[in-house]
Design a protein that fits this description.
This protein is mainly beta. The chain is built from one helix and 51 strands. Strand 30 and strand 31 form a beta hairpin.
Length: 627
Amino acid sequence: MKFFRFIAVTLAVLLSGLIPTGLALADTISNDVISGGNDTFITGSSTTINYKIDVTNGVPAGDPSGRNDNGANPATVTIVKPAAVTATPASLIFTGGGSQSVLFTSATPGDYAISVTVTGGKSGSLWNTAPAAFTLHVLSPPPPPRDTTPPVVTAALSPSAKVAPNWNNEDVTITWSASDPESGIASGPTPASQNVTTEGVGQVFTSTATNGAGLIGTGNVTLNIDKTAPTITGPRTPVANSYGWNNTNVTVSFTAFDTLSGVDHYSGPTTLSDEGAGQSVTGNAFDYAKNKGTTTVSGINIDKTAPAVTATAVPVANGAGWNNTDVIVTFSATDNLSGVATVDPPVTVTVEGAGQVITGNATDKAGNIGTVSITLNIDKTKPVVTATAVPAANGAGWNNTDVTVTFSATDTGGSGIATVSPAVTVATEGAGQVITGSATDVAGNTGSANVTLNIDKTPPSVSITGPSVVLQGTSAFATVVASDALSGLVVNPSGTLSLDTSTPGAKTVTIIVTDKAGNTNSATLNYTVWGVNGPFAPLVKNGNGTGQFKAGSTIPVKFQFTDGTNLITTANGTVSIGSASADFRWDSTAQQYIANLKTASTPGTFDVVLTVNGVGSKTLLSGITLR
């Protein structure tokens, strides 16, 4: 057990008279030397001794308090030894506690005094180094024993076997060596070296050597040599298609065999997942001799991306997405890796309908299928347009006002109505006016409808002319003229109209005409029928209706004109009997007209004829006899 020899050394120092008796010591240098222990070793080996500084404060007087060594005042402990001893390190530096080691070695047996000296530390420091002194014992090795063991013969292989079970993959040189730690080698080894080139398993080679005691030692080594690389193959899964392409991951799985050392290991399966042409996978196989066989599986083409397919519709749809004819859809495709193998042929779509989905496919050489769809809206049917006239024509097909024609449409093709002609108000007169309107559906089909209008807004022309005054009982006529230049008259009253003269008084005749469009017009004739009162005596008929007067005599003819209410006093004219005539005049006293008519001298029977200027004539009395 290690301990510090502080007390013993102190006593020794006191006895030696180095420090006065009765005084306490300063800081002490000590070690962990154990007598008969770490102070002793055999030449060629070593021992380690640990040193430290112990603190003794305040004595003798003048020694600083506390530790004499610190960071600011390091203390250097130097090992004092004879030249035959080596101390490593040769000195120790203490800055405040702890222990430090020194390694002692010596090749020369003997007993050697070891001590220390101290420098540094605090100013005025006193040191007690006696406890650190000891005797180092270096012993000679013991004598060797008697040799009874044959020498050891060892084979060194160049190159050495690479892996268990001790295989080489090239020629091997065996270099033999022999050792004998007791009596040494007298001869051998024989052979000293061998060069082995033959492949084979379990080849045994030997060599011998003799030591100083005459003992023979034999060494042997077994060689396994395999210089032939294993065979490796790599089938791929799945196999490529007829174009040499795959469209999925490709796994190359390797297999190997070796006829001598056997297969140790080979590359595991490799899966290629990236797309690309001309990819390859290399696999290695190693036998137990570390021979390497290599194979490369090349020409792996992977395309997992479907071709890009485009559908083109001809003709293209209009802005609303509709076609109004058959549509041919053609398909085209591109493929950036394996290339396009097949594309679906064109499709002609003839059926009407919205949302028709036409799909086409393309296949690349790797077998990927790309698909594209295009949606078609086809409407080839024109809209049905209806034209409606308001107001409707009459039974004769005519209107006599402005006519508004409105258009409406329906679409059976499916696209719906896009535009319809606006309403048209026709104000122009005329027959056979064709008003046309159209409607266009969303697909661009246009249908039309028309209506034929006959418009006559002008009333027909009508006039009536005739006498303003007529004599009662006479025949009087009016002339009617009517016409319509456009639609024509329903009934045309044009011609001569007999006037009513049966009673005296104011009379009115109105002619109303209507054309075929329903326009009407009228014309009115106002006339007065004068009634005749008389004749008065003496010109009257006798009882049998005859009157007799002397030929050549003057006969007073008296009479009145009345409008049925009042007497007419402004008339003028003549009265005639036969060839004789006389003007009549108004007799305001008698309130009658009178004409003194001198008759002709020629006897005969005559009528008395009253002629009113601007009016007409009337027989006032018939059957008058002149004798």
